[in-house]
Amino acid sequence: MSVLDSWDQWKNFLGDRLHNAQNEGMNNQVIGDLAYEIGEYLANEVDPKNEQERVLADLWSVASSEERHAIANMMVKLVSNNGTK
């Protein structure tokens, strides 16, 4: 089962990656930029696996670049309290 199949698993996966990046000293601007790039990749290359991902994909598809950065930054905030560490 892929981490994309379950919304909670996806948030925990992202939370773990966020905490690893922060522990390595990555600043919030770089993390936000990476979140944007991940969002772009997912929007272009991955079919949503659950309802939450479908909503994000739909929002992403109509958002401007600035709005996409906002969505990416909100996802970072959303997962900041998730993860296994």
UniProtKB/TrEMBL annotation:
Q: What protein does this entry describe?
A: DUF3243 domain-containing protein
Gene3D superfamilies in the cross-refs = Protein of unknown function DUF3243
Q: Which Pfam families match?
A: DUF3243 (PF11588)
Q: Which organism is it from?
A: Bacillus carboniphilus
InterPro entries documented for this protein:
DUF3243, Uncharacterised_YmfJ, YmfJ/YflH_sf
